[in-house]
Write the structure tokens for this entry.
Amino acid sequence: MHIRFSCLIGMLLFSFMAPWPSIAASAGTTSSGYAVQSGDILTISVWKEKDLQGDVLVRPDGGLSFPLVGNLQAAGKTVPEIQKEITHRLVKYIPDPVVSVAVKHIVGNVVYVIGKVNKPGQFVMTSKIDIVQALSMAGGMTPYASVNSIKVLRRENGKLKAIPFEYGDIEKGENLSQDIILKSGDVVVVP
């Protein structure tokens, strides 16, 4: 009884807090909140159904699997959209299901920094970050970097495009608009 009451209180609090400001402010946002990415881990629970609770990984294809729901496309959708879809699918089996969905780990929202930086690699974006911030996360540039030939590679609509970035201008306080907010999957290349 105590556990059910705690779950109910938790779900009520969750419903008042969603969408979470920290998640809504992250780089993978839509107009209505954080867009779930492949690699993210979601916590899904159905009230009074202990067999329908657990952490679920969003697969590389963007889908997830959950008991009685089957496969569901999650990548690119917001938490409320996923919650609504799961609820809709469970109505066949459970009258008036109360479903909660929360993002447990934002793992799929990443950018990559490669080339002549001190710590190249993959970096998880837990908030919006721009190019300069990504370069800082990578430990800054090496002395041999071509700081005015940096490119951001971005895939949009299946096509790859290169966005130029001149760090020298930023150092002078000029052309600041080029320091764009990065999107999930962007690659910052420092030659």
